[in-house]
Q: What sequence folds into this?
């Protein structure tokens, strides 16, 4: 597996909480920490808007930097911070990500998956309100120098993406064989567009229903990462498919550390047919969304398959 490209220096380091009351409390061991979302004066709407802004900025820079490695689909999950419960001094922030790399063995059709997560920390020395104001008002928040540090969120990501968590790296067999990845099966522009539309339809349908279903669990930020299938090159017959997801749970430790739990899920999607039949089924006109449609040769849907896989 190729190492992710190193494009800068990680300059953000953990910093002690500043502020008179907070320092006194911490020295006495009495400081209590809460999620910035639970701090009394945090404008939750402004925080959600800021997280959305950071996600958008990450998407803008990722293609030419972090996403040039094996994990081209690096996906932001949750950005959170721990703050002191009284003064709102920021102690630690964590931005979680997930990515996946799937590969079909050309001889056996075995579908191999490496799907790690990443927990990236920054520790600005400021208050919750000032942090939100600074980043929300910045024209380039991801590169903004954080108070009390010499680096930015982007700088912290550079080092973070060199340290995947929970992945299962492997060396792909690139020799010729009978089977191929679904993303490499179509050689025509029309075929590639059809498969891309099918995957997009599934992702949209998942996003539409997740809030009332799977995202009601502890992993409230579940994101679809990749739908990968092993395909017979000569016929287009699908041997197996796996739909990969990532999610995280924010945990604020007594010490003030923002220590999220991260996890990826590889969910088998069973059906009988060709990749073309699957794509046609998922994109056909109708009132039923892609995730609830019966899969080719089955009476069950992709939603049914996720029920025994996602939390």
A:
């Amino acid at each position: 597996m190729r190492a992710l490209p190193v494009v800068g220096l990680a300059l953000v380091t953990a910093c002690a909480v500043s502020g008179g009351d907070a320092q006194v409390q911490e020295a006495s061991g009495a400081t209590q920490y809460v999620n910035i979302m639970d701090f009394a004066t945090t404008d939750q709407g402004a925080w959600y808007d800021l997280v959305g802004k950071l996600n958008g900025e990450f998407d803008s820079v990722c293609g030419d930097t972090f996403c040039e490695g094996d994990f081209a689909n690096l996906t932001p999950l949750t950005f959170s911070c721990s703050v002191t419960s009284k003064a709102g001094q920021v102690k630690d922030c964590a931005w979680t990500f997930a990515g996946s790399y799937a590969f079909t063995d050309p001889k056996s059709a075995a579908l191999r998956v490496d799907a790690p997560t990443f927990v990236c920390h920054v520790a600005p020395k400021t208050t919750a309100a000032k942090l939100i104001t600074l980043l929300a008002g910045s024209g380039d928040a991801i590169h903004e120098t954080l108070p009390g540090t010499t680096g930015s969120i982007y700088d912290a990501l550079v080092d973070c993406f060199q340290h995947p968590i929970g992945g299962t790296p492997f060396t792909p067999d690139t020799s010729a064989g009978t089977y191929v990845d679904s993303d490499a099966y179509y050689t025509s522009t029309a075929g590639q567009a059809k498969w891309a539309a099918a995957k997009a339809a599934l992702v949209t349908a998942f996003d539409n229903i997740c809030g009332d279903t799977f995202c009601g669990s502890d992993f409230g930020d579940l994101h679809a990462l990749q739908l990968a299938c092993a395909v017979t090159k000569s016929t287009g017959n699908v041997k197996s498919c796996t739909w990969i997801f990532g999610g995280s749970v924010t945990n604020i430790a007594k010490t003030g550390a923002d220590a999220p739990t991260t996890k990826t899920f590889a969910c088998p999607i069973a059906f009988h047919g060709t990749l073309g039949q699957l794509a046609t089924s998922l994109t056909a006109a109708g009132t039923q969304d892609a995730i609830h449609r019966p899969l080719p040769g089955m009476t069950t849907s992709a939603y049914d398959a996720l029920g025994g896989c996602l939390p």
The CA atoms of residues 24 and 31 lie 8 Å apart. The longest helix spans residues 189-210. The longest strand covers residues 238-249.
